[in-house]
Amino acid sequence: MDRMVSMIRDLMQEHTPDQKLGAVVVGAPGPLDSETGLIYEAPNLKWKQVPLREVLQEALQVPVWVDNDANLAALGEYTYGYPLEFEVLLYLTVSTGIGGGIITNGEIYRGIDGGAGEFGHMTILPRGPVCGCGNYGCLEALASGTAIARVAREEVSQGHLRALGESVKGRLADIDARLVAEFAAKGDPEAARIMEEAMGYLGIGVANLVNLFNPRAIVIGGGLSGYPGLLDRVRQVVKDRAYSSLSRNLKILPARLGNKAGLMGCRALAEIKLKSQN
Amino acid sequence: MDRMVSMIRDLMQEHTPDQKLGAVVVGAPGPLDSETGLIYEAPNLKWKQVPLREVLQEALQVPVWVDNDANLAALGEYTYGYPLEFEVLLYLTVSTGIGGGIITNGEIYRGIDGGAGEFGHMTILPRGPVCGCGNYGCLEALASGTAIARVAREEVSQGHLRALGESVKGRLADIDARLVAEFAAKGDPEAARIMEEAMGYLGIGVANLVNLFNPRAIVIGGGLSGYPGLLDRVRQVVKDRAYSSLSRNLKILPARLGNKAGLMGCRALAEIKLKSQN
């Protein structure tokens, strides 16, 4: 926490020494309460019940808002990626995990405890592999980078996926989704099948979102979203599985802001919050 | 259409001859456009592109609004079933099919084409049985009355579920979910297993809704919702599968308005619409 505060001060000093800090928006891993800025739990940071907003506000003496990082990325893509083009936009990020954010009427939809939009944790295969969240057959356990790496490791350890296995000299821990994607792109049929299966599940997850939210656009970002053919594959599954009256006017689009989506979402939220204060 | 108009006139005449008709709200099967009152398609009625609102408005010369029947049932339960108790309420109806409605901030959330809330058409078993919508493994194809009857017929035709099969003298068409539920309640272990499996899938669908919408309440109605133990089974699956931070403050509750939910929703919508006109 001290490091965050001093980094903010250093950045101000360095880049805008003649301006005053107006507000701070923090994108944090959920689940959290965006009203109070309390982080309920952030396992990767080993945080529990951290009153982030309160602490930063006291240290910096400016308004501070805290929101879920995927929510902010959604707001970023909505506001700056596809500037206000779509009234209802879902943002889906596919990388190590699968996260999401929901924008309706230009606002983040957070649900009651600030935890809506856990797109990665829809069950789509009830007896499927265990997920990091403890459930079985979550979208994240089937279509994320972690899932792709897990399947590839299993294949290698069973003697399949030879070329890939040799490239890491049998060190299973060195296998990640990027490597599987590389081999698939180079034409390895087994690697391609693993990618294909993951994309098929991703398509099912997206089709579910179409039937539930009836959005105008679904924007897909994250490290794996650039895999060749991913968007087309997802579009095909949506066409096959979702209601045609709901997919007819739907756009499935690539994220435009890359890893700046969250940052731009912080900016958008700051503008919304400061405006509503005046 | 003529019959609807003359029935409305007759009802007015009969019950409130001294009052003027103020407005009409119609709950119709979706998908439809609630802005224009155009029914895109209602397969059971053999309707296509029917401008219901326009026609009724012209005939009756009062404001007419048309909305999805499950949306209106959701609004009915929100407004009169649990009077304004829950800011975010999902309504799920389990009978022949599985439908749903979404209330956020006291309003129906309809999505872009008015088709949001197709809870029955989440895929939760990608290679599961074909659904009426053409997709495979939808919640409706696994947990609705139609699904329960289908499984029971399959079992009977394979020589299982003997007592039930004998009770209909082998006429498969006479098997419906109500009969399966009756046999299950009487202690038939095979019938109980069919009900149990359907409820398990229902729980998975509800757990998905929790992780996606983070609602305060999920209200379950429809012909099958009264099956003994259904709510507890759903609660258990949600506890097992959904994020605990999102299910902690969640209530899973029985619908209170029975088959009047839609009607009460019409009344609630009329009040909202007339208020916003003044």
Explain the layout of strands and helices:
Two copies of one chain form a homodimer.
Chain A (H helix, E strand, L loop, with lengths): L1 H14 L8 E5 L3 E2 L4 E5 L4 E5 H9 L3 E5 H13 L6 E7 L3 E7 L2 E2 L31 H4 L1 H13 L4 H6 L9 H9 L3 H25 L3 E5 L8 H12 L2 H4 L3 E4 L6 H17 L1
Parallel strand pairs in A: 1-5, 6-9, 9-10
Antiparallel strand pairs in A: 2-3, 3-4, 6-7, 7-8
Helix pairs in contact in A: 3-11, 5-8, 7-8, 8-9
Distance between the termini of chain A: 29 Å
Assembly form of the protein: homodimer
Instruction: Work out the largest interface and the residue count of each chain.
Output: A-B, 47 and 47 residues
The number of helices of chain A is 11
SS class of chain A: alpha/beta
Report the count of strand segments of chain A.
Answer: 10
Q: Percent of residues of chain A in beta strands? A: 15-25%
- Give the fraction of residues assigned to helices of chain A: 40-55%
Shape annotation of chain A: globular
Largest sheet of chain A: 5 strands, mixed
Q: How large is the radius of gyration of chain A?
A: 20 Å
CATH superfamily of the largest domain in chain A: ATPase, nucleotide binding domain
> Which strand order do you get reading across the main beta sheet of chain A?
8-7-6-9-10
Which series of helices and strands of chain A comes N to C? Answer: HEEEEHEHEEEHHHHHEHHEH
* CATH level-two architecture of the largest domain in chain A: 2-Layer Sandwich
